[in-house]
Design goal:
By secondary structure, the chain is mainly β. It is 8% helix and 50% strand.
């Protein structure tokens, strides 16, 4: 009996040690003072962050010209509060949301249009998408742009992605329309897209895999009101944010999600990158006008 008790005590202590180690391997920092930040993108070339902000309250469809893109360091320090749009260009952003960065180009959605900017000259060009209702996330890969329309339950496919210096309109088609995905967050560098869903009616949505042809496969059944989504370089772990539980989750394919961070009010779309030290996530809290920096150390 004594041996059994001793064994159980050792097991409990071992479990406690694992928990402590896990907690010690995660650092968090909260920075405030923003104006309803909706999306944060990581620029792997210049090692900076770009954050879209509504600028005038939590009114995601109001065309009031108050939105802008902030430039920050990887530590969350503001480098340039209103980096875009440049007032010299007379370009107006209303409620900028999803951001994609590749080389010297930046794309950002704004209700029913997509803007492309030159990061050096700050020149911009607007692309209107017919039938768009609530454009959200945007990613670029293999020269093609993918844009989610949450309210319209569709994903726009735009080719070529770089239309800034072209005189003709790019080819635009719609995929996965009317599939009940309510697509919000997008990610995926190769193969199919990973799509996180958000239902404005209060229903639950999950995570799906969508091929460039619009073929849909469920990866996570209806779970919550999902916003941002990103995956690790090896593709084994998916991170996503959920407004319903106010939580950031990590999930391996075909396994149950695990909470990474809680206590948000509006966990929106986040930036994720990796280095020798571990995984780094910077996630905006749209409702609290904050951003949270999370380091998951190796």
């Amino acid at each position: 009996m004594k041996r059994i008790v001793l064994f159980l005590i050792c097991m409990i202590l071992s479990f406690a040690a694992v928990v402590v180690i896990a907690e010690e391997n995660k650092n968090e920092k909260i920075i405030g003072g923003f104006k309803n930040p909706e999306f944060i993108a990581y620029d792997k070339i210049t090692k900076v962050l770009y954050m879209s902000e509504f600028g005038s309250g939590l009114k995601p469809t109001e065309k009031d010209g108050a939105g802008y893109i902030r430039k920050l360091s990887l530590k969350g320090e503001t480098l340039e509060e209103k980096f875009l749009p440049d007032p010299k260009t007379k370009i107006v952003l209303n409620k900028p949301k999803g951001i994609a960065v590749k080389a010297d180009r930046l794309w950002v959605t704004d209700i029913d249009v997509v803007w492309e900017f030159d990061l050096e000259t700050k020149e911009g060009k607007k692309l209107s998408l017919q039938g768009a209702q609530f454009l959200n996330d945007v990613i670029v890969r293999d020269g093609t742009l993918y844009v989610s329309d949450t309210q319209g339950d569709q994903i726009f496919q735009i080719e070529p992605a770089d239309y800034l210096s072209r005189s003709h309109r790019p080819a635009i088609k719609v995929i996965a329309k009317g599939k009940g995905l309510s697509p919000n967050g997008l990610c995926g560098e190769k193969g199919n897209l990973f799509v996180a869903g958000y239902d404005f009616g209060g229903g639950e949505r999950g995570i799906s895999s969508v091929s460039p042809k619009g073929e849909v496969k469920e990866l996570l059944p209806p779970f919550g009101q999902l916003d941002g989504i990103a995956h690790t370089k090896d593709g084994k772990n998916i991170f996503f944010s959920d407004w319903k539980s106010k939580t950031l989750y990590k999930m391996k394919i075909k396994e149950k999600p695990e909470a990474v961070a809680t206590g948000f009010e509006g966990p929106a779309d986040f930036a994720l990158w990796e280095d020798d030290k571990g995984i780094h996530i910077v996630i905006p809290d749209l409702a609290k006008s904050e951003m949270r920096l999370i380091d998951i150390l190796r």
